[in-house]
Records
---
Amino acid sequence: MDVLHMTEDALEAKCVEWRRWFHEHPEVSTEEKNTSEKIFGILKELGLDPVRGQGHYGVAATIQGGKTGPMVALRADMDALSVREDTGLPYASQNPGVMHACGHDIHMTTLLETILRLLRRKDEIQGSVRILFQPSEELAPTGGARYMMKDGFLKDVKAVFGLHVWPNFVCGQIGVKEGAMMAGSDRIKVVIKGRTSHAGHPQEGIDAIMAAADFLQQVSHIVSRRVSPLATATINIGTIHGGSRYNVVPDEVTLEGTIRTLDETNRKRIPEFIQGILDGLKASAGVDCEFNYYYGYPVLDNWPVPAKLVADTARQVLGEKGLVSHVVPDLTAEDFGFYMQDIPGCFLWLGCGTEGEPVHGLHNAKLCPNEQALVVGSKLMSQVVINALAALNQGVDFNKKD
């Protein structure tokens, strides 16, 4: 593919073509085989030397700049969701019950378009760019980010950048902030065990449902009374299963839920609070309890220097109106946070809404991002790469947190 001689219109049309292929052929976590092959082929066509993941469908490649220097990384996720599409688009999903309802088709294509733009500006790249197409972002609590890290694709990377479409911002806007931007996401499973009896003789049994009701009351007080009102956290019990018959005192109830936090301190304290409640129920109600806490994605915590660089670049590329002021953190989660536990980086929200049209949120069967987000995102991210490498070459300390 002759990137250097492509017109802007031809470049954009090719990327729309790729995006619509991805949208028509979605694949869920751990099953991204065809998506991976498509990306691998495109990267080869662009003259890169892609590498496949070990035991997963991730793909990585490297763009060598015109000058030697440090390396930065760009990441896009690849997987879709088990959602039946309801957009009515002519290029709607051809895989029944599976849809790119979280915009990962836009993410992949934005990164491909960013690569096209960087190849056209190769002489300006003072170092190299590691390209990461990551599988299984939706596979909580594991996440595909750790697959890419285990394979060594982040070795020698000095800064890492990523984005997510954001339907609440119109196309042409981006949101970014220093510090916590998206939540740590964990999962809990509690099994409360009592003893059955006839409902007419409740004193002979130990009612697991009543104990579960007490648990629900007490766990709801953790956020309001054990966590600082200046902090952000939520505990949601999404399923509860128990009992076998209307006239039998139930002997077992299983509850499952999720916990979202915006700081690692509260994230570590909440399991201790839950265990304390269960210990109290054992004493007061006579039940036994099993408690499993599954740590999932960490808090997505943008590093100060990369976050400022992204904000300054957004002003440069999009103008002051393109940068959403006062971005409020969101309690959705992203496994990009794993990368930033070890490497300075920044994650941003890419507006994909259309002025005057209904907003359909992420994971919604009607999600239909504005395809102009591809142009906005690729122009921004290619300039982020140029600016980040220039800053690193000038000795800017991306690790600085004060």
---
Amino acid sequence: MKIESLKIENVGGISNLTLDKFHPNLNIICGENGIGKTNILDSIAHCFSMHSISILREKADSKNGFIDIKNDDMPESSCRFRIQYSELKDRFDNNSPFFGRPINSYCRNPENLIYFKTERLFSHKLVEQLNIHDLKRDHLCNLDGVSIDLAKDWFIKNELLSFQKYTKDNDKNSIELAKRAFGLLNQSYTFSALRQDMEIYVNTPTGVIPYEYLSSGFKTCISIVWGIIREIQIRFPDRDVKDFKGVVLIDEIELHLHPEWQGKICNTLVTLFPEIQFIITTHSPHVIQTVEADQVIALSGQDGYLEKRTLDIAPNGFKGWTIEEILMNVMGMKDTRTEWFRNKQKEFNEALDLDNVLKANNIFKELKEKLHPNSTDLALFRFQLDMLNGRNK
């Protein structure tokens, strides 16, 4: 299943949005805070979720609305999901923070979608008894997002079973892929062993440690990779992980990742799961810097009326762009400089216009102390100051 198009009207903070063409492998949604990136993921997940109908809300003061999704897994005559507001009367007055009616879900094929929300960290868990029961029906509430509560139990169970001759090949493949997750972004880290204390140990440059003691960045990657593998194994027990051709949603992919890893994570996931369609939100230019132009959905708009910005400026993608160029031309930042710098630049220019040598020299001294030693801006300020000093000799 691959999502081809999406239309949202009057859901959450979105008044109107139409996305006509999704990339079959990777889609990066970016835009300013509050524009509705997470709302888009929630809307998609809602159409493939058995429960959790109260998470999405109608847009304030709207009378109707819907979510239409077209995907390639359905015949042309019935290729659209239509989600409408329930006929329930308002249970709260207009002043309540819970005002609004829940949207009913008429889901189809919920097993084909996996959703990762922003909670992806975990703490140490002492395994006193192993939970070996993962029921499929408990994993189809996609709007709640993938749970990491039993991930450790899942790994231990599969590692123990992998040594049994009756274990299926696809389950053995799943646990081997899960072990690779430790070194996906840094090959110095590898799976060490599952020991008698039922702890999962990892080889690191500083020694062998329990996997819960890894950094937040490692935990984030493990949660995503293990989450995908685990969900596929539970939903499709007879299928190999790499044969899954569904959709994976990830909110704020860059959370807890160093910029270097932010630039690697998307390509790593696409390489590891080549048949999956990823739809991801981000605030990171490092994520966008590694992808093609048709894989970026840059949102703009006001009052909930959104549109996908045309990125004709980058027909060959962003791999040759600087972070600053992506921030300003793709992500919509008006200026990458601080307010302090802009104010000092304005004061300096005013001093030049007034031939105020003393003030210009004092401002330059401040700029020299705080700008990068090799800053091109600093070189320009110095050139302008030299000209002013020369005129006033």
---
Amino acid sequence: MTELLLDPDIFSKVREEVFTTIGKYGKIQEAKIINLPYLHAVIKETMRLHLSVPLLVPHKTETEVKLGKYVVPKDTKIIINAWSMARDPRYWDNQLTFKPERFLGNEIDYKGKHFEFIPFGSGRRMCPGAPLAHRVVGLMVASFVYHFEWKLPHPREEIDLNDIFGLTLLRATPLLATPVPFK
């Protein structure tokens, strides 16, 4: 929501897409959420910039592995920095800019096949809650955009986007926004 509230143009595009698909007095249903590509691009871009778990679950090598010019010994703990990968300029143009359009018209998803974007991990240890998160977050954001206008208690320029690093990534300053029923 922070990224949407910081950019009224993106918020308007999401709202227009939701209204076009759901209708003026419709109910937001999971079956209709599937047909909202821009909403899903916004969610993916948010997950790219604001990972909830920046360091993935540690792995351990079962055998000696050669990666490029490096040799990783057997039984080495490997920690994947997904946060850094999601901001790597080799894979992302303007990597620090919130730009949902980068996910439109391509097949990059969070199912673990595109290693530049793995907010839920990859392989056998991928987060088992990823499909649920995909559905619930889409429904929540669509509902927030469809049913409410949002008022900020202070100017957009004063919103703090800094994070606190730990096992999970938290906002340094929580978002304060007031929902006003949309008419």
